[in-house]
Amino acid sequence: MQREAQHREQARENLQEAQIRAARADKEQALAEEQAAAARREMAEVQERAALAEQQARERAARAGEDRTAAEELRAEAQRLAPGLTPDGQHPHHDSPEGGATRR
Length: 104
Fold this sequence. Notes:
By secondary structure, this protein is mainly α. It contains one helix and no strands.
């Protein structure tokens, strides 16, 4: 009889321990799922920011190309209107004769 009582007591303790561990396992599983979901959210946010940055870079490059094309067109038009005009808007100066040195 005493042995049977010990077995029942041991069984009761085992059941209590099983309930505690099952509850702990459920809690840890839920936390793990939340952690994984947070990691997926962060990854999605990073990917979204990267995609936006790439789009902005492409748009900036396109604007730079448009500006470069416009600059070339304006230079060509300036040369057509005033051949030999320098980029600072001045005509080249021809103060000294060719050769540079003067004889006395």
